[in-house]
User: Which sequence fits this backbone?
């Protein structure tokens, strides 16, 4: 089975507000990157969760901008 990176989903979590703020939704890479970048630049504590389909390049792009990432919990 081949993994298609186009199926990757990212979840931008504002760690100051938590997941309870209702703004955690599955996003494609470009939208998630822009949202996370803007939050981080405004001083918010942000983390991006990603699905297994995410590429190492996408994950590295977040990290290179100082945005922590974690794999989505399975289960």
Assistant:
């Amino acid at each position: 089975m081949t993994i298609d990176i186009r199926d990757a989903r990212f979840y931008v979590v504002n760690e100051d507000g938590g997941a309870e703020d209702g703004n955690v939704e599955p996003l494609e890479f470009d939208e998630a990157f822009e949202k996370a970048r803007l939050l981080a630049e405004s001083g918010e504590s942000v983390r991006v969760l990603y699905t297994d389909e995410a590429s190492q390049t996408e994950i590295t792009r977040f990290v290179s901008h100082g945005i922590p990432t974690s794999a989505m919990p399975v289960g």
Observations:
- The chain has a mean pLDDT of 88.
- The two ends are 20 Å apart (CA to CA).
